[in-house]
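Example complex used in Figure S2.
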Amino acid sequence: MPNPTAAMLVIGDEILSGRTRDANMHHLAGQLTAVGIDLREVRIVSDDAPAIIAAVRAMSARFDHVFTSGGIGPTHDDITADCIAEAFDDSIDVRDDARALLQAHYERSGQELNTARLRMARIPATATLIDNPVSTAPGFAIGNVYVMAGVPAVFQAMVASVLPGLTGGAPLLSRSLRVMRGEGDIAGPLGIFAADHADLSVGSYPFQKDGIYGANLVIRGQDQERVDAAFATLEQLFVS
Amino acid sequence: MPNPTAAMLVIGDEILSGRTRDANMHHLAGQLTAVGIDLREVRIVSDDAPAIIAAVRAMSARFDHVFTSGGIGPTHDDITADCIAEAFDDSIDVRDDARALLQAHYERSGQELNTARLRMARIPATATLIDNPVSTAPGFAIGNVYVMAGVPAVFQAMVASVLPGLTGGAPLLSRSLRVMRGEGDIAGPLGIFAADHADLSVGSYPFQKDGIYGANLVIRGQDQERVDAAFATLEQLFVS
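Predicted assembly (480 residues):
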């Protein structure tokens, strides 16, 4: 049986203007190759609704899976979700499930869920959410299209959420712990923890915020009890 | 007046498989931005004739300029030239002008112009050649499409050959000198030479072959006499 095929659509002006160099394409290409899915085409388009809609329709019709990155943030030029809804003739509005995720996230961090941030809860009616263990605002899947963030750490975490479901494996459950220490401090004990939990996937997604280094540590597995137990151990290790 | 628009088509499996990370897209994006041409879309397709032909036709119709990279080498999977000819309903065969360039190049280097290398002289009948000061085998322009090599040093040299003609400047003439010394040895005197010839463009394209470092030094300018005089000086400097 031939391998399943895939395409990627990168949305945004940063790469086309030469300001930034692609990281997500390279990451996805490697991940897909590793699981035996053939990445056949990549398109990069700017924040332009007709271009996005046309590309999504063309690629969705031609390939088994389509992955998009970029354009799902809180600013006016984040138009990906609305374009995807239109490409699938679906309706779109702020959805209660996505709003609840954001509400809880911003309450925890003491920030306001303002109108701009609420944009990130605009999800097509028939889509299912994609877990974002790094910064909460979800991606979504509709038809054979997986809509993910452009920030590399978030993109990578979402790819890790999505891929097991495409390769016939059971969907992975995840729990994540935000640790306000640099990865250099974390790496030693985290490596031992990962070796002790070889049946789970343990990831570290570093960030820097207001000059402070931190990381989101993500545990993924198929069994909720195992994941919960490992999470409790992780908390003991890194939250004192 | 709005800026002219452009698109890029990257041809080949290396990036899609994750083996290599794109360099040409980033280079072209920066160069186009610098001269006020808007890069609106990039597509990456594999060595697949229908995909290449469809992409070239779609992009050529929609944008002012289209740049391609990859698939014009000597091996069986280098099918770009034939695909471009088909996209423009043009005929294609080994062309005398391109063959003469390759013949002279391989005679100088004592290598045989075999059947495989002769593939690089297959050029659509109505195309014009694009200068390749690094490794001789030419690119070509047909309609609004510029067909260039995938090897980054060659791609960059071809972009430098093509861009002035797109921005209303006079076409540049070039002469190149192959120097079998590393760039670290060359850089000092070459910097002084470039400063002494501020009306010309002076480029260095390094290579490594059989463990020996070298560089193709390229002089570009609008006036043949100035270019020739500068070339003579360059020879005195670096060929002893």
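The longest helix of chain A spans residues 152-166. Chain A has a mean pLDDT of 90.
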